[in-house]
Fold this protein.
Amino acid sequence: MRDRIAIVNLMLYSRAPHVTFPMSFPPQCNINACGILLHKLMMLLPVPTTSSHFIPDLPAHRKKQLLFFKRPKLLPEDECRYPFRTIGDSCYFISKEKATPDQAFALCVRHGAYLANFETLEEAMLMKYELQQMKTGLHFHFGGRNINRYIPRGDWRWIQNGKLIKMKYKAFGNGQPDGSNAGPQDCIMFYAGERYIWHDIYCDHPSWSSGYICEK
Ligand SMILES: [Ca+2]
């Protein structure tokens, strides 16, 4: 309930005059359709913690409509601190420090995080766009792994907290993945040379030292 009230407050009772607020959302607006917009608002403003900001004369039907929205799932602000930052609904650290995928895996753990997983296509699209905007020219490792080199194009999994989660989609570039048992390329990166499409690569070869993305 507290989260829902926070959204209402953010939409209608901002004390930040530089922010233009939508005074209403379309009736069909739900967390999927409006989640990013709500998220942006929440990033711009302090989150009120009480319902005291309610305008008393808000019509009852309007309250109901607004209370329908739920706050996107986010880490509390103080847990997503620099060098981590929020992108979409997730908290990432995009490191330009060069590391192999195996080194990057360990470095993320040292940060109290894990090599980033993009379980939904939306998360991967947001990150791809972010990397393009950064214009670093670097590749960036993230956390998928192939666990079976004998299967054509591999069996790719996200790894988190000891669990191997089967990838529901893949965004490999043309001709990728091209690893095999003879030439194992069990790790994965956003490949700068093709606008950050995915490439499978060797996990521990120094020639694949590049940036990496941690998540927590
Ligand atoms: Ca490859």
Observations:
- The radius of gyration is 21 Å.
- Residues 1-33, 44-56, 64-71 have pLDDT under 50 and may be disordered.
- Helices lie at 2-12, 31-44, 60-67, 101-110, 121-134.
- Residues 7 and 71 are 6 Å apart (CA to CA).
